[in-house]
Amino acid sequence: MMALRIIARLLDYPDRALFDHQQDLEEALASASELQEAQRDRLLAVLRDFSARPLLDLQADYCELFDRGRATSLLLFEHVHGESRDRGQAMVDLLDQYRAAGLELDSRELPDFLPLYLEYLSSRSPEDAREGLVDIAPILALLSARLHQRNSRWADLLDLLLTLSESGVEAQALQAQVEQEARDDTPQALDAVWEEEQIRFLGEQGCASAQQEAHQRRFAGAVAPQYLDVAQATMGMTGR
């Protein structure tokens, strides 16, 4: 699904390439036959809205939204396993799933980063892609509800993913739950987490958030021919 590839790019950390290749992305969007006209227009509106903003402002908003607190983290297993040991095994299983599909990640990749997972699904058949979206539909709905609460344009992308999943899961059903949640991105909440967490030493690499490392990831693997025209505009997928 070409739409998944484009949504993955828009959910990734915004950079200059997003602006430079806007036309390529729009042309790719026009070929996304899995989208209805209204869905295509909605996705096009998000793309143009992002591209019309100053890059530094867009980057600042992205970091404020996705790098502060865990409620809106784009790391899927954060919402399933948290910091439990089960998360490590889930990472290994997902990596095995990627490799079985002929894809390899570089050493800095976090396999549960949502844009990366969408890149993987975009290389699968439409049926497999939808099944993969169904698997994460509850997480997508929760993220969407929280992003809508914060009046974020990125919420439109999560809603489109839910629509493409055809799962019947809706973010609106979680609005009441989300309204009762305490925000975890306030200075007070972040200070509390900092005080509770054990300091981890990462040797020469220093201390860095998983999300920051994810921003530097590149997805390497086999690419279907129809994706090559927008490779530079998206995530730099390359053949093995």
TrEMBL record:
<dbReference type="GO" id="GO:0042128">
    <property type="term" value="P:nitrate assimilation"/>
</dbReference>
<dbReference type="InterPro" id="IPR003765">
    <property type="entry name" value="NO3_reductase_chaperone_NarJ"/>
</dbReference>
<dbReference type="GO" id="GO:0051131">
    <property type="term" value="P:chaperone-mediated protein complex assembly"/>
</dbReference>
<dbReference type="GO" id="GO:0051082">
    <property type="term" value="F:unfolded protein binding"/>
</dbReference>
<dbReference type="InterPro" id="IPR036411">
    <property type="entry name" value="TorD-like_sf"/>
</dbReference>
<protein>
    <submittedName>
        <fullName>Nitrate reductase molybdenum cofactor assembly chaperone NarJ</fullName>
    </submittedName>
</protein>
<keyword id="KW-0534">Nitrate assimilation</keyword>
<dbReference type="InterPro" id="IPR020945">
    <property type="entry name" value="DMSO/NO3_reduct_chaperone"/>
</dbReference>
<dbReference type="GO" id="GO:0016530">
    <property type="term" value="F:metallochaperone activity"/>
</dbReference>
<dbReference type="Pfam" id="PF02613">
    <property type="entry name" value="Nitrate_red_del"/>
</dbReference>
